[in-house]
Amino acid sequence: MSDQNTFKKNAAAAAMRYIEDGMLVGVGTGSTTNYFIDMLAEKRDSIRGAISSSGATEDRLKKNGIPVMTLADGDPDVYVDGADRFNNLKQLIKGGGGALTGEKIVASVSRKFICIADETKREVRLGTSFPLPIAVIPAARSSVARQILAMGGNPVYRNGFMTDNGNVILDIHDLAFDEPIAMEQKLNNIPGIVCNGIFALHAADVVLIGNAAGADVLA
Length: 219
Ligand code: 5RP
What we know:
Blueprint: H1 3-15, E1 24-27, H2 31-40, E2 49-52, H3 55-63, E3 68-69, E4 78-81, E5 85-86, E6 92-93, H4 100-109, E7 113-118, E8 132-136, H5 141-150, E9 154-157, E10 168-173, H6 180-188, E11 193-196, E12 198-199, E13 206-210, E14 215-218
Parallel strand pairs: 1-2, 1-4, 2-3, 4-7, 7-13
Antiparallel strand pairs: 5-6, 6-12, 8-10, 8-11, 9-10, 13-14
Helix pairs in contact: 1-2
The chain binds ribulose-5-phosphate.
């Protein structure tokens, strides 16, 4: 296993300490979260169930025999998800896997948001080393792209990719920002953008930073 995968696995293992009997567990998407899902299988008979953030995660939960519920069943006690980048304020960039819309919905109503990420994903200024994904209604792709260009960003169409909700993804390069909340709100106000990958209005409560020794806690 590569170092980075070991770090991801260590972060996932640390998240298991937050899972208690009877909990409704929101589950994110991605390779780090996949480690968590496989570990969560050990508690499938003691938790109330899991709420998925994507089709891929739903499939993996079911393969592990974990009962899958929906937000109609209630708000999750805890939400566990990876990230593409995080800063010292526990604000995130997410959406590398394209599941940002479902992830933001489940995260927004969960009582505690636990981000699991390896140490390579820490950065001081979000937007510096990872492009910001936005989910866009297909008909608005060009108009949104022009508005992003006017903001100084460089939108790149994620070719051949469609989200669970039938939207396209633009990955915005060259748009580092100092005020994640303001940027999240600004992008939310552009018609045609369904969701942007900044998780700052509702940041993580805890980031478990996987490394060679285990996981550090940023709380
Ligand atoms: C998916 C995400 C993922 O959490 C993010 O891309 C991190 O993925 P990984 O754990 O595979 O590095 O936001 O939309």
